[in-house]
Amino acid sequence: xxxxxxxxxxxxxxxxxxxxxxxxxxxxxxxxxxxxxxxxxxxxxxxxxxxxxxxxxxxxxxxxxxxxxxxxxxxxxxxxxxxxxxxxxxxxxxxxxxxxxxxxxxxxxxxxxxxxxxxxxxxxxxxxxxxxxxxxxxxxxxxxxxxxxxxxxxxxxxxxxxxxxxxxxxxxxxxxxxxxxxxxxxxxxxxxxxxxxxxxxxxxxxxxxxxxxxxxxxxxxxxxxxxxxxxxxxxxxxxxxxxxxxxxxxxxxxxxxxxxxxxxxxxxxxxxxxxxxxxxxxxxxxxxxxxxxxxxxxxxxxxxxxxxxxxxxxxxxxxxxxxxxxxxxxxxxxxx
Length: 336
Known about the structure:
Blueprint: H1 5-17, H2 24-35, H3 41-52, H4 64-81, E1 85-86, E2 89-90, H5 92-96, H6 98-112, H7 123-152, H8 160-170, H9 172-186, H10 190-216, H11 227-230, H12 236-263, H13 268-280, H14 282-303, H15 309-331
Antiparallel strand pairs: 1-2
């Protein structure tokens, strides 16, 4: 079994070292969010790919670009969704207020890029990293725009393909960026990076689908079961249910979204809709779709001609084990 503790120590050191001392009115929410932990699988993925390509830990100084962007998106996402919890504690806007949280999230995006200037590379290479990062951030926010629009427009039902395309931008693109960044640092050819970036994108989408499922089966750690329904999210299980149940299903979903938005997470309508989706088998189908994406992504990583092959293969096997353990907690049991 590959021990990731040394990798994670490097990641945590560079993240916490990149946050300025103060003032607290700006950085307290940032230190709070970073201190709550998180899976850190995106910067870990970047580091594993860099090592596998023969670059060692050369990407480490740039990992704030990956994790700070992700954390900033969580702060803003919780405000947009009016989410009460994040990683087991009240969301930043609940603790610090909307104004402070918005400003801290925005600052964290800008702070991410501060790691580029002191990075020991040529001006052209620094410019290349900055361009790469901003391109992926535009994709992330485009995906978020679709997600917000869909849950604000209750009658609109996206297709499965619509949903997967949205997730590829909102969730998959930061995973793809983590890999693209490592490839750029190592000087990998564009064609070589494409295979890895596509695998990372699918890994992100698969992980998002598993989160969708986990939200309906026991809840995501640090959040409440069914809060995606309260937010009116058109997750994959909901879309599959609407395809299965027709007009009656559409009426049930619309009525549930409205009741849950009015009455909150304790609305009986939330559990009724989850039960209907379980009975229709669509939560299982969503889980299978997420697992298939993870299978394909890890197969691509396994088949890649790594420069450091044996260690890299072991690392990706362990990464898969960790992600599958998260998936098993989500929902392969139907405990309500």
